[in-house]
Design brief:
The complex is a heterodimer. Chain A is mainly alpha-helical. Chain A is built from twelve helices and no strands. Chain B is an alpha/beta fold. Helices cover 39% and strands 26% of the residues of chain B. In chain B, strands 6-7-8-3-9-10 form a six-stranded mixed beta sheet, sandwiched between helices. A four-stranded antiparallel beta sheet of chain B has the order 2-1-4-5. A four-stranded antiparallel beta sheet of chain B has the order 12-13-11-14, with helices on one face. Chain B is globular, with a radius of gyration of 23 Å. The chains are: A mainly alpha, B alpha/beta. At the A-B interface, α1 and α5 of A face α3 of B. Bound molecules: adenosine-5'-diphosphate and magnesium ion. The site of magnesium ion has 5 residues of chain B, from α1.
C-alpha cells in the first residue's frame, strides 16, 4: 500500500515521457480543439445572431471547451486499449504494484494533458476575440470545472477501454457517445430551435449543464427555451457537480474492479 | 524442491466450447529449465498466464515457490519474471526509459532503478540503442529488452513464452545465448516453444503439450529416443522402391515408413548411417533422387506421440479470428 503514490506517479510520468519523446503527439492533441475554435469562429460565427455582447465567440468558447474535455473519454479509452493490445497491461499486472495504480496513473496523465489543451485553447480563443467578463476567480473556477469534468469522464473511458479492448472500436464508441451529447446540447446553438422532446433531453444533458455553468462563470447570462424554469437550467453549476460526483462514485470502483478482473 | 507446480488445470472459453487447458499438470524442479513444447493453440500461453497470476483457471491448483497463485497473486508477483509471447514494452519510450520505469514499479529507488537499467542494457548489448525509442528496435532487440525488463529484480522463477518466435536465425541464436547465460546463473525457468530444437538447446526437461494436455514428458534425450532421433530419408524412382526399402531395413531396425517414393526410417548413428546408405545404394546401382538426414521436428514428435501431425494451427486460427471479429 505504501507504494501507491509512487506507482501512480511512475505511470503518469510514463505518459508525460511519451509526449517528450514524440512531441508530435502534443501537436496532434492540441490542433483539433484549436481548429474547432477557428472553424466555428470564422465559418459559423458571422451567421449566428446572439443577444450577447461580444458576439458568438463568447457563447462558443465554453461550448468548445466542454466538447474538448468530453473527448478525454475517448482519449483515455483508446490509450488504455492500446496498452492492453500491446501486452503492456499484462506486464503491469504481473508486477507487484498496487491494484489501482495503472488506471489511476492514466487518468492523471490524461488530466495533465487537459491542462495543456485548455491553455492552448484559451489562448487561441483570446486571439480570435474571446473575452470573459467575470472576475479572475470565476474564470479560474470555470477552468477548474472543465478540468474536473474531463477527469470524471476519464473514468468512463477507463471502463470503456477495458471492456471494449480493440483500440479502433474504442475510438468509434468514444465518438458515438460524445458527438450526440455535444450536439444535443446548448453548446453550439440555443436549444430553442430543437423539437420539444430534444429540448428536455438537452436540458438534462451534462454537456449542457457544463456549458451553462461555464458561461455563467465567464460572465454571460444563460438563455434557455422551453425548459428555462427547470432545475438543471436554473442551477447548471450544482447539476454539473452532481453529475461529476455520480460519475466518479460509480465508475471509479467499477473501473478498478474491471481492471483487476481483466484477463483478455 | 519443486518451484512450480500445476495440478489438473482446466480453462475453458466461450462457455466450455473451447477447452484451452484440459487437466494439465506439470512441475519444474528448482534451478532447472522446463521446456513446454507444443504447436499453436496447444495451451502454452494459457498455462503461462495462469502461472503468472494473469488468469484464473476454472479448476486446478497452481503454486509458485509453494505459494498458491490464485490465493496470493501479490506474493507470487514479487517472485516471478514474465516475458510474454509479444514484447510488452512501451514502444514510444526508449529502452532506458522502459527499464527505469519498470525498476520504479518494482519499487527500486530512483538511483537504483537507473543503475539497474544501465547494467541490464549493458548485459543484453543494448547500450548503444538505449536512448532510441523501442519502435526503432529490431525484433531481436525488442525481445532482449523485454527479457531485461523481467529481470529487474532477480526473479526466483522466470516464465518465457515463445521467446524466439518471429525472430530471424541470428536473433534466435542471440536470444539462446542470453537465455543460456541466465540458466547458468541458476534461475528456475519455464519456457514455451514450438521448436524441438529450441527445447533441446535450452531445457533440462521437456513437456510436450497438445489440446491442453501434457502428452509426453522427459529429458530431451529420452524424448528423442521415443521419437527415434534422426531420420534417414531417401527418395528414389518407382522401380527402385523395393530394393531401397531392403537397404534401409538393413541400416535401421526401426519401423520403415514409405510415402509415395520417399522411404524413411529412424536411425541412431547419424551421418554414419547416411554414408552406409549411400554406399549400399551405389553398389545396387540405384541413383537416389534425394537423400538426407532429417532431425526430428515438432511434427515428427507429434506424429510419433499422437499419430497425427500438429494440425492445431489450422483449428486455432479461426477461433482467434472469431474472437477478434466479434468485438
Ligand atoms: N480469450 C480467449 N477466448 C477464446 N479462446 C481462447 C482465448 N484464449 C485462448 N483461446 C484458445 O485456447 C487455446 C489455447 O490457446 P493458447 O494458450 O494461446 O495456445 P498457445 O499459446 O499454445 O498457442 C486455443 O485454441 C485458443 O484459440
Ligand atoms: Mg501462445
Amino acid at each position: 500500500m505504501k507504494y501507491v503514490i509512487s506507482d501512480v506517479m511512475t505511470i503518469t510520468k510514463r505518459q508525460l515521457l511519451q509526449l517528450a519523446r514524440i512531441p508530435e503527439l502534443l501537436v496532434f492533441s492540441t490542433i483539433q480543439p484549436v481548429m474547432f475554435v477557428l472553424l466555428f469562429r470564422f465559418v459559423f460565427g458571422g451567421s449566428i445572431e446572439t443577444g450577447q455582447p461580444g458576439g458568438y465567440v463568447q457563447l462558443l468558447m465554453p461550448g468548445i471547451f466542454v466538447q474538448t474535455v468530453a473527448f478525454t473519454l475517448a482519449a483515455t479509452a483508446v490509450g488504455l486499449a492500446e496498452d492492453m493490445k500491446k501486452g503492456l497491461i499484462d506486464r503491469f499486472r504481473s508486477l507487484p504494484i498496487s491494484r489501482g495504480a495503472v488506471v489511476i496513473g492514466r487518468t492523471f496523465g490524461d488530466a495533465l494533458l487537459n491542462i495543456l489543451v485548455l491553455t492552448v485553447m484559451a489562448t487561441a480563443g483570446y486571439a480570435v476575440g474571446w473575452r470573459p467578463t467575470s472576475g479572475s476567480l470565476s474564470i479560474f473556477l470555470a477552468f477548474l470545472f472543465l478540468f474536473m469534468f474531463g477527469y470524471a469522464l476519464s473514468w468512463i473511458g477507463i471502463y470503456v477501454g477495458l471492456a471494449v479492448k480493440e483500440a479502433r472500436t474504442v475510438q468509434s464508441v468514444g465518438f458515438l457517445v460524445t458527438f450526440p451529447l455535444t450536439f444535443l446540447s446548448n453548446a453550439f446553438a440555443p436549444t430553442t430551435g430543437m423539437p420539444k422532446a430534444l429540448q428536455y433531453f438537452a436540458e438534462w444533458n451534462p454537456v449542457s449543464t457544463m456549458v451553462a455553468a461555464c458561461r455563467e462563470l465567464f460572465g454571460l447570462k444563460n438563455e434557455f427555451g422551453a425548459t428555462a424554469s427547470s432545475w438543471p437550467s436554473q442551477h447548471p453549476l450544482e447539476t454539473s457537480l452532481l453529475y461529476m460526483f455520480l460519475l466518479m462514485v460509480v465508475f471509479i470502483p467499477l473501473s478498478i474492479r474491471k481492471y483487476k478482473n481483466t484477463s483478455n | 524442491m519443486k518451484s512450480v507446480i500445476a495440478e489438473n488445470l482446466v480453462k475453458t472459453y466461450r462457455n466450455g466450447e473451447v477447452k484451452a487447458l484440459d487437466n494439465l499438470s506439470l512441475d519444474v524442479e528448482e534451478g532447472t529449465v522446463l521446456g513446454v513444447l507444443g504447436p499453436n493453440g496447444a495451451g502454452k500461453t494459457t498455462t503461462v498466464r495462469i502461472l503468472a497470476t494473469l488468469l484464473k483457471p476454472d479448476s486446478g491448483i497452481a503454486t509458485v515457490a509453494g505459494i498458491d497463485v490464485a490465493k496470493h497473486p501479490d506474493k507470487v508477483r514479487e517472485l516471478i519474471g514474465l516475458s510474454g509471447q509479444y514484447a510488452a514494452v512501451d514502444e514510444t519510450l526508449t529502452g532506458w526509459d522502459n527499464l527505469v520505469m519498470f525498476g520504479r514499479l518494482y519499487h527500486l529507488g530512483k538511483s537504483a532503478s537507473i543503475k539497474r537499467a544501465d547494467e541490464l542494457l549493458e548485459r543484453f548489448s543494448l547500450t548503444d540503442s538505449a536512448r532510441r525509442p523501442i519502435k526503432t528496435y529490431s525484433g531481436g532487440m525488442r525481445r532482449r529488452l523485454d527479457l531485461a525488463a523481467s529481470l529487474i529484480v532477480q526473479p526466483k522463477v522466470l516464465f518465457l513464452d515463445e521467446p524466439t518466435t518471429g525472430l530471424d536465425p541470428r536473433g534466435r541464436q542471440e536470444m539462446w545465448g542470453v537465455i543460456q547465460e541466465l540458466v547458468k546463473g541458476g534461475v528456475t525457468l519455464l519456457l514455451t516453444t514450438q521448436y524441438l530444437e529450441e527445447a533441446d538447446q535450452l531445457a533440462d526437461e521437456i513437456a510436450v503439450i497438445d489440446h491442453g494436455k501434457v502428452i509426453a514428458r522427459g529429458t530431451s534425450d529420452a524424448l528423442k529416443k521415443q521419437v527415434g532421433g534422426e531420420r534417414l530419408e531417401i527418395t528414389v524412382d518407382n522401380t527402385d522402391i523395393h530394393k531401397t526399402q531392403e537397404i534401409v531395413s538393413r541400416i535401421s531396425s526401426n519401423a520403415i515408413h514409405t510415402d509415395v517414393r520417399t522411404i524413411s526410417a529412424p536411425v541412431s548413428t547419424g551421418s554414419l548411417a547416411l554414408m552406409e546408405a549411400l554406399r549400399a545404394l551405389d553398389e545396387a546401382k540405384i541413383h537416389p533422387l534425394d537423400i538426407a538426414l532429417k532431425r526430428p521436428s515438432l511434427d515428427d514428435v507429434f506424429l510419433s506421440l499422437t499419430g497425427h501431425v500438429a494440425e492445431e494451427e489450422v483449428i486455432a486460427q479461426p477461433v482467434k479470428k472469431k474472437r477478434g471479429g466479434k468485438k
